[in-house]
Amino acid sequence: VEDMASPDSCTCRTDEGQLVEGLQEAMLETVIPRGDADRVMVVLGEHRGKV
């Protein structure tokens, strides 16, 4: 997660370095393991499958 644009919307950076804006919490899933460099995967919407 790069930025929280609003309380219910964020901007994330993919493994390829692309910024994806306007993601909502319901569209994301934490990729295990949890730690200092937590990652999320988009599970809904047009960017589904991106990490």
From TrEMBL:
- InterPro entries per UniProt: Spp2-like (IPR045166)
> Which family, according to the similarity comment?
Belongs to the MOS2 family.
Sorted alphabetically, which keywords does the UniProt record give? mRNA processing, mRNA splicing, Nucleus
Subcellular location per UniProt equals: Nucleus
As recorded in Swiss-Prot or TrEMBL, the protein's gene is named Gpkow
Role, per record: RNA-binding protein involved in pre-mRNA splicing.
Example GO CC term: the record gives: spliceosomal complex
Q: What is this protein called?
A: G-patch domain and KOW motifs-containing protein
Q: Name one GO biological process term.
A: mRNA splicing, via spliceosome
